Amino acid sequence: MVERAVEIRKGFHQSLDEVSQELVRLAGMVTEALGKATQALLDGDLAVAEDIIRGDDVLDTLTLQIEEHCYQLLTLQQPMASDLRELVTAIRLTAEIERSGDLVANIMKAARRMYGVAFDPKVRGLIEHMGEQVHRQFRLAIDAYVERDDTLAAAIDDMDDTVDELHVDYIQAIFETHEQGVVDLQPAVQLALVGRFYERIGDHAVNIGERVRYMVTGWLPEHAAAARQSVRDADGDDLPLPPSVHKGPVSG
Amino acid sequence: MVSPLVVASVAVLVVLLAAGLSVSLVSCRTTRRRLAEEAAADAAHLEDERAMATLLAGALGAIPQGVVICDDAGREVFRNQVAQAYVRGRHGEALVEQAIQEQLHALRAGAAPLRTLDLYGPPRRVLLLSAVALQDGHRAPGALVLVDDVSERRRLEAVRRDFVANITHELKTPVGALGLLADTITAEDDGAVVRRLAERMTEEAFRVSRVIDDLLDLSRIEAEESPRCEPVPVRLVVTEAVERVRPLAQTRGITLDVDELAGWHCVQGDQRQLVSAVANLLENACKYSDAGSSVEVRCRMEGGVAEVEVRDHGIGIPGRDLERVFERFYRVDPARSRETGGTGLGLAIVRHVVTNHKGEVRVASREGEGSVFTLRLPSGTRPDAPHLVGAAGWPAPRIPT
Description:
The complex is a heterodimer of chains A (252) and B (401). Chain A has seven helices and no strands. Chain A is an all-alpha fold and 252 residues long. Chain A has one domain (2-219): Up-down Bundle (Methane Monooxygenase Hydroxylase, Chain G, domain 1). The radius of gyration of chain A is 21 Å and the shape is globular. Chain B folds into three domains: 59-149, PAS domain (Beta-Lactamase), CATH 3.30.450; 152-223, Signal transduction histidine kinase, dimerisation/phosphotransfer (DHp) domain (Helix Hairpins), CATH 1.10.287.130; 227-401, Histidine kinase-like ATPase, C-terminal domain (Heat Shock Protein 90, 2-Layer Sandwich). In chain B, helix 4 (151-186) runs antiparallel to helix 5 (191-223), helix 6 runs parallel beside helix 7 and helix 7 (271-287) packs antiparallel against helix 9 (346-356). Chain B is an alpha+beta fold. Chain B has ten helices and twelve strands. Chain B is elongated. At the A-B interface, helix 1 and helix 4 of A face helix 3 of B.
């Protein structure tokens, strides 16, 4: 009887492993698209842009499949503790990765709208830099997930400061080029949106890092906030929490 | 009383039984021997097969392509080392694995066309995936997927293709202009116009001659596999190169900020070639910077390697062109090349000089921020500095502004 239980768990762990591999594949598609998108944006390559925009449907389909797979395991296997954390993390990660893929497609849509506009070298350099930095961050977040490395996962948040700084410089550069009359208002707005898209992808990478930390250690960033809030509650110097919010750390 | 007949028959029976037993014993022994022999033969055969399989696996492991073999049911039976890296791979590797499975699937469904997988990495790679059904006469016992990394091949193709196109452009443009100008002069009577056209002709002629000079320089450096080998002080190379570029820097309003290496550290090589390499880098730095900006030259000695770094704050080089700027006649922006008046050979010359000196040249750049070129040369022995200073009477290095 015990042996059979072990056997069933073995099958379950194999399925968990499959989910994780599918997730890595999904992420691989997004990282590849991200690198491709930055180059296509700088080159004004419409063919690649179309390719990526169309590829987003493939991403969405795979996302749905992974999610279905997760729900199936959740209901049929009723996992507990670290298994449960891993599965819940997988569900969260599909959403983060899928959203990042959407943002890459958005960058390409903006590239389509800006077709034929010559960018200032400084703006181009910053786009390239932001693209590389976000790309690296996203890859490292996936590395952290594959290797179950909570230290690396925690480092992604610090790396994101670089992206935020670049984003500020980038917006400044757009203002300057617009003032000099190099870029019209319409493409300038599109450029600003593109910067925002990159910055958001960086944030999704940070979220992935946080979810990986949760998977490995059971820690969530909200725990720190909840702890702060409970201290404030004890001191009675802040607004009370709504009754539905958990006050203490919750681990699976 | 027992009848003798019975005794005799019993005796015969016993004899017969014994004989039968011994016969069956003998035949049993032969069977066992035969079986043992067969087993040994089988074992030897099996051993041979195993050795063959190991040999074939080793051979497939030694080839640079990724190989995946499946049986007729589509189950994977073999994967060489290169292809092994795609299993449980992440990022681009995960996509290669997916493509392998898709190729196998397509082959089972009918035919799998050759597929190109363009991976942006980094590093950027181009992979070709082909799936072939294995045949043994009447049926297909399995399938094979081959993953071929053609990045280097593609790169070389691009270099060759662009070289021909660019050299044609670089030589044909001024020659075409010369022809047109000469044509116009023939039909022109106005002296002033003729003079202006002639000036333009001289300019264009200079342009062609500069390209030819650089080409000759380059082929000379290429032919000279081992340049003259004498200790050359790094600061001398830098000072001479800076002096050569100073007029250009002044006309373009660019500040040269030189921080020379203290002491008389030397590299082994040909001084003229080394000066031309550094001067080429400085010239580029000045040409691609805006007026009012500065170009910095830094020298370092690190672990037996002399480094000369030329940093500008100009327009910079796009990431995808970074690897290609050292190619002959390669232009990041062909529209700009006539403005700067370069020949498109400067960096090719730099790379050849450095390679001849067993060093390397590195480039880091960002569009809109500028570029940093670093020459790294293995350092030679340090010559007797006072003797050198005394004999040649070199001036103390100035810090130009």
